[in-house]
Specification:
InterPro entries: EgtD_Methyltrsf_superfamily (IPR051128), MeTrfase_dom (IPR019257), MeTrfase_EgtD-like (IPR017804), SAM-dependent_MTases_sf (IPR029063). The protein is of the alpha/beta class. The chain is built from eleven helices and 14 strands. The structure holds S-adenosylmethionine.
């Protein structure tokens, strides 16, 4: 395959069926739970872009500070081995931050192919268009699907060394145990010398954290409620959005910031042929946004078999992009 093209590869195998089965089993669980990976339909993508632009959502500005102002430091850490590589971004979204780094590498004449992976085909199309316009020289292969299945596709396309980007709040959207299994799985899929640049939002003043996910404008609430709209549309369900309310918590001890939807009344919702009962005040667990200490980061790297090669912090010291190497 010629990788010197703008390519989009999709894996839509069983997509609708998996969505249905995950939603049904999550809502039959106690407590009820929905996976935040399903937030990202066309409207969800747009709402997430609005979240990133909110002044309260400090994560964007922190990581932008790193990617805009410390680009050379990032490049030094991942291009110390000067061989060509594949830069694979997991959950790339609109690559708002990483595109500064892509431009820097292209301007330096670095030999690499950018492979963004995202479950949302919509955001990948937006990204591809943006990259074609702003960095036309960039070699891009967009991979639409789940992290690991598309990482395998990337490995099948090219045997060059791999640098994985996993930015923003993505690792934080996993429970700690899940994050450990995820990083261990990544290591199994990589070879000695491959690298991972992974973003961690640090524990900080609890008010700052809670405000970032509990905005007064209601954008985060709309982002959560939009998953019910998506389920109504795609799975023939009848959620009444007026009967659900967004609720956000932050526990500064564990570092878990959690989004819930609260059922405001006793109600029964039908999804396809299945009835799901809600008690008044019953919760749906929607998303965790885990915050980390420096010790948590070290422990996660060591436990999952990586060596920390370096780290870059924003000027407020609120966020770390940590660079890990596979030693084998
Ligand atoms: C919170 S956004 C962050 C986007 C980007 N990393 C950033 O920092 O701006 C998460 C992105 O990951 C994608 N995503 C979430 N779960 C995924 C999964 N299991 N496989 C592939 N993509 C996923 C979503 O579609 C979304 O674009």
């Amino acid at each position: 395959m010629n990788l010197n093209t703008k390519t989009q590869i999709k894996n839509n195998h069983n997509k609708a069926e998996n969505f249905f089965l995950d939603i049904k089993s999550g809502l039959q669980n106690t407590p009820k739970k929905l996976s935040s990976k399903y937030f990202y339909d066309e409207i969800g993508d747009e709402l997430f872009q609005k979240i990133m632009a909110m002044p309260e959502y400090y994560l964007t500005q922190c990581e932008l500070d790193i990617f805009k102002n410390k680009t050379a430091e990032i490049a030094d850490l991942i291009t110390s081995d000067s061989s060509p590589f594949d830069l694979i971004e997991l959950g790339a979204g609109d690559a708002m931050k990483s595109s500064y780094f892509l431009k820097y590498l292209v301007d330096k004449g670095t030999d690499f192919t950018y492979m963004p992976i995202d479950i949302s085909g919509n955001i990948l199309s937006i990204l591809q268009e943006k990259l074609e316009k702003n960095i036309p020289e960039l070699h891009t292969v967009c991979l639409e699907g789940e992290y690991f299945e598309m990482l395998n596709k990337a490995a099948a396309l090219s045997s060059r060394r791999k640098v994985i980007l996993f930015l923003g709040g993505n690792i934080g959207n996993m429970e700690l145990e899940e994050a450990y299994h995820f990083c261990s799985g990544l290591k199994q899929n990589l070879a000695a010398g491959d690298q991972l640049l992974i973003g961690f939002d640090l524990k900080k003043n609890p008010h700052t954290i809670l405000n970032a996910y509990n905005d007064k404008t209601g954008i985060t609430a709309a982002f959560n409620l939009n998953l019910l709209t998506r389920i109504n549309r795609e799975l023939d369900a009848d959620f009444d959005l007026k009967e659900f309310q967004h609720y956000q918590t932050y526990d500064p001890v564990s570092g878990a910031c959690r989004s819930y939807l609260v059922s405001l009344v006793d109600q029964v919702v039908t999804i396809d042929q299945t009835s799901i009962s809600f008690k008044e005040n019953e919760l749906i667990d929607m998303e965790v946004s885990q915050k980390f200490s420096e010790e948590d980061i070290k422990e996660l790297a060591e436990k999952s078999g990586f060596e920390i090669k370096g780290e870059i912090r924003d000027s407020k010291n609120w966020f770390i992009d940590s660079v890990w190497t596979v030693t084998k």
